[in-house]
Design a protein that fits this description.
Radius of gyration: 16 Å
Shape: globular
Strand content: 25-35%
Order of helices and strands: EEEEHEEHHE
């Protein structure tokens, strides 16, 4: 689980290019991304212009060695309350799909997968005794 409320993702990668038409393209995989936010692969590389503090944060938040090289991941944030009511945010890296599978998806398919992953994590934490913080 990540320990930061800000996470490395394709937006933070030196290989991400945003074109004038709004398209996001990963130069590393030659893939157009439906969103570069909260998704990443194990080859994510911090932008070269960032300072040492950013590099340290990036390295601590990412553990790319544990990730498959042909897979896209997303950060799933689940707001919870523990058994005594303390607010927490559970942050987990979850598999979206192989990069090859992702290439065939529409934006609608992508967002459905994201919704499903988020609901699955909510259910997971409920089953483990957490109260889901729905903002109320």
């Amino acid at each position: 689980m990540a320990q930061s409320t800000s996470h490395p993702d394709c937006v933070h990668c030196k290989f991400m290019v945003r074109h004038k038409n709004g398209e996001y393209r990963c130069r590393q995989h030659d893939v157009i991304l439906h969103t570069p936010v909260s998704i990443f692969c194990n080859l994510i590389t911090p932008p070269e212009e960032k300072d040492g503090d950013y590099e340290q944060w990036f390295t601590q938040a990412m553990n790319a060695e544990k990730l498959d090289h042909n897979t896209l991941y997303t950060w799933v944030e689940t707001p919870t309350r523990d058994k005594i009511g303390v607010k927490e945010v559970q942050i987990d890296a979850e598999v979206i799909a192989t990069i090859t599978s992702y290439l065939a998806w529409s934006a609608g398919t992508f967002w459905q997968v994201i919704r499903t992953l988020r609901q699955r994590k909510r259910n997971h934490y409920k089953q483990h005794g957490y109260n889901i913080d729905d903002g109320s």
